[in-house]
Task: inverse folding
């Protein structure tokens, strides 16, 4: 990339990856080949949009694309977060196209929010592991060596 710190260049790259992914997704396949999997294209597009935003890209469409891509590749948590962020940016007086996008964002949110309890449970487990690690580190060294020697019970 000629301009690695240019958010517009990253948006263009992301749009290219998204377009290529759409082409693959729209290919129904035939007797000689199976339908393609656009996941890798969409992952690259999402990474590029994320980089563009890190560099300062703004706008409803950029954020909308992130929500749409995260939803398409099954990144449920990101899809919910991106949909919420994008809904905050939604124009007050939307064009018909923007109104359709807002409706789509609500659908993305609804479809993916059901998986959030799973993520909350995962976060709880991670917190429990942190507490366990903290307690482990407070044990005297000789006790830790003993448990290391005999293995986990």
Result:
């Amino acid at each position: 990339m000629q301009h690695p710190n240019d958010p517009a260049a990253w948006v263009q790259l992301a749009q290219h990856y998204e377009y290529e992914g759409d082409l693959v997704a729209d290919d129904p396949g035939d007797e000689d080949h199976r339908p393609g999997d656009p996941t890798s294209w969409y992952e690259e597009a999402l990474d590029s949009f994320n980089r563009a935003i890190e560099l300062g890209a703004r706008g409803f469409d950029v954020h909308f694309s992130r929500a749409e891509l995260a939803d398409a590749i099954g990144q449920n948590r990101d899809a919910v977060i991106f949909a919420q962020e994008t809904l905050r940016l939604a124009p007050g007086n939307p064009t018909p196209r923007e109104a359709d996008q807002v409706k789509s964002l609500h659908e993305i949110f609804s479809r993916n929010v059901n998986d959030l309890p799973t993520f909350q449970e995962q976060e709880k487990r991670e917190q429990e592991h942190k507490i366990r690690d903290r307690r482990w580190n407070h044990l005297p060294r000789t006790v830790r060596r003993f448990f290391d020697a005999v293995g986990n019970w």
Summary: The chain has two domains: 7-114, 116-153.
